[in-house]
Design goal:
- By secondary structure, this protein is of the alpha+beta class.
- It has three domains: 107 residues, no CATH class; 118 residues, no CATH class; 136 residues.
- The chain is built from two helices and 32 strands.
- Strands 7, 8, 11, 12, 13, 24, 25, 26, 27, 28, 29 and 30 form a twelve-stranded antiparallel β-sheet that branches. Strands 14, 20, 21, 22 and 23 form a five-stranded mixed β-sheet that branches.
- Strand 24 and strand 25 form a beta hairpin.
Length: 422
């Protein structure tokens, strides 16, 4: 009879621990990236009472084992530019203030006064910083990510431009229809803009040939005359069209050199390529029986711009967005793939640390080496299901009540025995 009390007490303790786990799961239903736990009960070893009868009785239940469930939580959209979520396997890599490497699924990031990307509880998010040209090497060691703040993006002088235009096949040479001019704005090394004019003139002798010249306002050049246009080509050129109206590449597809020297604003001389053919060798100019018109124009220069915001994009790239619409890659978030995540130790603040049983974390870029994807503008919700937890509460409470009745029943039996003796 004496063992019945210890058996029932072991059950009371086990069910209490299970209810603690359930309570913790429910308490963190709204915790970003939280991973709930499941309870695993195991009985204590049994003892034989008499070899002949082969009768054995259990000794109760051991303390339950908590198994962290690393299932995917729901992905919710977020308006915070530094919020991000992991879809699939893996963890964000962070360093604690004591420089301990930790892992988390909570992508609700922020930045401190020094611009360092951090978790809400002060751990530094790890990744790789981009080189000056925007390239990122993910093969080196990770480090803290420092976000730009209050920076001005330097201007980039135009090096290439192109236009997509049609020159009318019905145009008549030496008339107003036989001349067409397209504007092209370019940017110099100081960030100032200059309006070039690309003028086409149809040949009277050869209907499929047009001559062209590229000019700049004289006032933009040192010693130039205001109100006039000055050519920036070594010599005017010609374009020839095939019988189907497409641009002939008989003379090659090399770009036309446009050289602008002696700018009045003190900017560096400009050497620009005018690309009349695309990368596939297709002409960007046509001669169809339609009015001469400019379809589109592109150039690769940019003016100086102020930093507007910094955001984490899908794929884990940290991108600075400037007032001119240009985006510059600043860093790449690192991810860790851990083969046995259930061996991680929960150290609080949504962070995990490796234990002696944890496989070596494989740190690399998203969507490589078994790592999932990083989603920008999103947060991963807790994977706790309220209905399941309430069901567990009912089961654990019922088991607790049943075990308490075992104790009261055994106690009544002891009282009856004592009354027999007296």
């Amino acid at each position: 009879m004496s063992s019945v009390f210890s058996i029932a007490l072991s059950s009371l303790q086990a069910e209490s621990e299970a209810i603690n786990t359930t309570g913790n799961n429910l308490a963190n239903m709204n915790t970003d990236g939280f991973k709930g736990s499941d309870v695993d009960f195991k009985d204590l070893f049994s003892q034989y009472i008499g070899d002949a009868s082969n009768y054995q009785t259990g000794l109760g239940v051991s303390l339950p084992v908590n198994n962290q469930l690393f299932t995917q939580g729901a992905i919710q959209s977020s308006t915070a530019p530094l919020s991000t979520a992991i879809q699939g396997n893996g963890f964000f890599v962070v360093n604690s203030p004591s420089n301990q490497q930790l892992f988390t699924r909570d992508g609700n990031f922020t930045q401190n006064a020094a611009g360092v990307l951090q978790t809400q509880t002060g751990e530094n998010v790890q990744g790789w910083t981009a080189a000056a040209n925007g390239t990122i090497s993910t093969s080196g060691a990770t480090g803290n990510i420092v976000l730009p703040a209050g920076t001005t993006l330097a201007p980039q002088a135009t090096q290439n431009f192109s236009i997509d235009a049609n020159l009318s096949a019905t145009a008549v040479a030496s008339t107003s229809t036989g001349t067409f001019s397209a504007p092209m704005q370019v940017v110099d090394s100081l960030g100032n803009t200059h309006e070039l004019a690309i003028t086409f003139t149809r040949s009277a002798a050869s209907p499929n040939t047009w001559s062209y010249d590229v000019t700049i306002p004289g006032g933009d050049l040192t010693g130039g005359t205001v109100g006039t246009q000055q050519s920036v080509l070594a010599a005017p050129g010609t374009v020839t069209f095939n019988s189907d109206g497409t641009l002939s590449n008989a003379g090659g597809t090399a770009p036309v050199a446009v050289n602008i020297n002696g700018l009045a604003d003190g900017a560096a001389n400009m050497s620009i390529n005018w690309n009349q053919f695309d990368s596939n060798g297709n002409g960007l100019l046509t001669q169809y029986a339609q009015t001469s018109n400019l379809g589109s124009s592109t150039q690769d220069g940019s003016q100086a711009a102020q930093l507007n915001s910094v955001a984490i994009q899908t794929g884990g790239q940290v991108v600075a967005i400037y007032s001119n619409g240009q985006q510059k890659v600043e860093a790449q978030l690192a991810m860790a793939n851990i083969q046995n995540p259930t061996s991680l130790e929960n150290v609080g603040d949504n962070n995990f640390a490796v234990s002696t049983n944890t496989a070596t974390p494989a740190i690399g870029a998203p969507q490589s080496g078994g790592r999932g994807q990083i989603l920008g503008g999103s947060l991963e919700s807790s994977n706790v299901d309220m209905a399941t937890q309430f069901t567990n509460l009912i089961v654990y409470q019922s088991a607790y009540q049943a075990s308490s009745r075992v104790i009261s029943t055994a106690n009544n039996m002891d009282q009856d025995l004592m009354q027999l003796i007296h």
